[in-house]
Design brief:
Helix content: 25-40%
Largest sheet: 7 strands, parallel
Number of strands: 19
Bound molecules: NADP nicotinamide-adenine-dinucleotide phosphate
CATH superfamily of the largest domain: NAD(P)-binding Rossmann-like Domain
Strand order of the largest sheet: 3-2-1-4-5-6-11
Distance between the termini: 42 Å
Number of domains: 2
CATH class of the largest domain: Alpha Beta
Number of helices: 14
Radius of gyration: 23 Å
CATH architecture of the largest domain: 3-Layer(aba) Sandwich
Structural class: alpha/beta
């Protein structure tokens, strides 16, 4: 779109998260709006859109960066939450929302659009309460700024946490015993429809604050499982049991799905109570949007997976110390290093070797000692980590911030460097670096131990590292030659 045709500026916060990434792409593809994004690490912005958006780096906790982000903005999307960052995330969420609202008022922003959760305060989980408080804070000064507060329950789309749970359970388990909470009713919604509501809200002619509940037909989690299995052409048997402690349900989820314990228990808590639409503003004020039925949303998500078109995933945002912090891509402080150097013909294979390094993990596996990597993944899962279940977003492409099994991509220098930060449960911090030079691959595992336990851990796993890292470096180079041939 030529600059002269661009109209007002919209700000998208959370633009490196599940919804924000997709909204950014939607607005770039279908509108003439000038899109600005507020991100905590500008390297996480998809390379293909870097020249199409205005990027401001900062955080809602940094008032100076916030002021710069909202200056000259007409409409500001609030797609942020702090769950997983710290135990007092509700407090963080309150401060974040207050800072954002006040910055918007100060800059003369016309409208805030916020996406929160569906449900009522009386039966809300801790996470939902925080989402409700955020909505209340954003809408607390109607005389100074108007807020459209969309409320969605289970969001179904490729890579969404709810869809990944349903898909994994359906695909992995022919029969399941199901606790009582799977019979609570909710109204799921496809991610494409969520984006339509968000986009339409920009120009919705409505004065003052508005709360809009969005969702498709009313279903229980059990019905969602059964319908999803039908879409996948699978026959699944669910056996209800009167009691199954929520904690056990969460362990069940972490064992068979990529979701970590904290997220699994928040989802189980959320599904324990009914989350159905409390108003019909969506039908009244957004008549052009006809939400897809649940089965259609599952089919759309499956199609995106099959065609390698997953734009964002539930694990894109960084509630751990990865990718949020500037200069995080430098493991210089590490104490221990395992370095493997493999030579290849000068100049010939540099790009191929880099591509080969970028292909590790997920369904592509970790070469000869895949079994050891898998065992490490299971140990990690049992300790409450991600394990290997997150796989990778796309088989051929990596971008900064992508989850890759139990790693997170912390840096990519095309053709030269891939740096992975370990998100497995460890007594310290670890990185895996592939530095591709013109005639050699330098692969380094960096480790910064925490206390004596950390040091003990490093020495204990050293013999395993010898085999695993040696094989990894050799195979990255040799498989690049094979693909070249
Ligand atoms: N996804 C769902 O299934 C779902 C369902 C219902 C409602 N919602 C609502 O939709 C909204 C967006 O959720 P989501 O799933 O897209 O979240 P998400 O994937 O976890 O992404 C959160 C985003 O917020 C950014 N962020 C966090 N704290 C920040 C701060 N202080 N300053 C600036 N950026 C910050 C993160 O940046 P980094 O990349 O740097 O971490 C990330 O881009 C939330 O309000 C959520 O309640 C989501």
């Amino acid at each position: 779109m030529p600059d002269t045709m661009k109209t007002k500026t919209v700000l998208i916060t959370g633009a490196t998260g599940y919804i924000g990434r997709r909204l950014t792409h939607r607005l770039l593809e279908t509108s003439a709006l000038n899109v600005r994004v507020l991100v905590r690490n500008k390297n996480k912005v998809q390379v293909s859109i870097v020249d199409l958006v205005e990027i401001t780096e900062g955080s809602t906790f940094d008032k100076k960066s916030l002021a710069a982000a909202v200056a000259g903005v007409d409409t500001a999307f609030y797609l942020i939450h702090s769950m997983g960052v710290a135990d007092d995330y509700r407090n963080l969420d309150r401060v974040s929302a207050e800072n954002f609202r006040d910055a918007c008022i100060h800059a003369g922003v016309r409208r805030i659009i916020y996406l929160g959760g569906l449900g009522v305060k009386e039966s809300a989980s801790e996470h939902l309460l925080s989402r409700i408080e955020t909505g209340e804070i954003l809408s607390a000064k109607p005389g100074q700024i108007e807020t459209i507060w969309l409320r969605a329950g289970v969001i179904i789309g490729s890579g969404s946490s709810s869809f990944e749970i349903i898909r994994n359970l359906c695909q992995k388990l022919p029969a399941m015993i199901t606790p009582r909470w799977v019979r609570s009713h909710t109204q799921p919604i496809g991610v494409g429809d969520v984006l339509s509501y968000l986009q339409t809200s920009i120009d919705l002619s409505h004065k003052g604050n508005l709360v809009v509940d969005i969702g498709c037909e009313e279903l229980s989690f059990q019905q969602m499982m059964q319908q999803a299995a039908e879409v996948m052409a699978l026959k699944r048997y669910l056996f209800p049991v009167p009691v199954l402690p929520p904690r056990l349900s969460s362990y069940w989820l972490i064992l068979f799905t990529p979701i970590p314990y904290k997220l699994a228990s928040a989802l189980v808590e959320g599904l324990k109570s009914e989350t159905v639409l409390q108003n019909d503003n969506a039908a009244l004020l957004y008549p052009a949007i006809r939400p897809l039925l649940f089965k259609q949303t599952v089919a759309a998500a499956m199609a995106e997976l099959e065609h390698n078109q997953v734009l964002s995933r539930w694990c894109d945002s960084s509630n751990q110390q990865a990718c949020d912090i500037k200069d995080f891509d430098n493991p210089a402080g590490a104490v221990f290093r395992d370095v493997r150097i493999i030579s290849f013909e000068k100049g010939e294979h540099q790009e191929d070797v880099f591509q080969s390094a970028c292909a590790v993990g997920g369904p592509n596996g970790w070469f000869k000692y895949n079994l050891l990597w898998r065992i490490r993944g299971i140990i990690d899962k049992l300790m409450g980590g991600y394990g290997l279940n997150r796989g990778r977003r796309l088989n051929q492409e990596l971008r900064i911030g992508d989850a890759l099994d139990f790693w997170k991509v912390a840096d990519i220098k095309p053709g030269k460097r891939l740096l992975l930060y370990a998100q497995m449960k460890l007594p310290g911090q670890a990185w895996l670096e592939f530095d591709v030079q013109s005639d050699q691959l330098v692969q380094t595992a960096h480790f910064l131990p925490r206390g004596v336990l950390g040091r003990l851990y490093w020495y204990l796993v050293m013999p395993l590292h010898h085999f695993v890292f040696n094989d990894l470096a050799r195979t990255v180079v040799s498989s690049s030659k094979k693909s070249d041939r």
